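Risk register update: the risk of archive-format incompatibility is retired. Evidence:
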Amino acid sequence: VKHVLDVGADGVIVPQVNTAEQAAAAVRFSRYAPDGARGVGIARAHGYGQSFEDYVTRANERITVVVQAEQAEAVENIESIVAVPGVDCVLIGPYDLAASLGHMGDVEAPAVVEAIDHVTETCQAAGVPLGMFGVTTESVRTYVENGFGLIVVGVDVMLVVSGAKRVLTGLREMIVS
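Archived output:
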């Protein structure tokens, strides 16, 4: 967490957060003392010391902490996770969640949908913003329509492959015509 923030990221997305204790640790390592345990050092985030005081003074308020709920255990503990001060958003990882529930690759299995609904309802009741991952824009449409504020779509390798396929298709059409 420290390394990512020290290079200048405005926040972190912490995977595999399954308990309130893990969520609290994510927040603690994202905050400087006295609010946390983030190490202090000269780094890119504060201009290698040129804006150190300004950065350190405001960092605890500005850094966003997103925890990923992507395991059955996280769903079981979601009420206590969202109650952790400093958790700014919960990002649902539907594919890992499906796998942990015994439905590898089936994010539409009833148990998976029920788990996602539980996380959604709990976060909305607590006023904690939600995020969702999907492999296509269509797969996240419902979540966009339901007010999820953090939408992650695609995987870098899949995007490269789909682009390469479009280029190949275009070349084949040129050659055939």
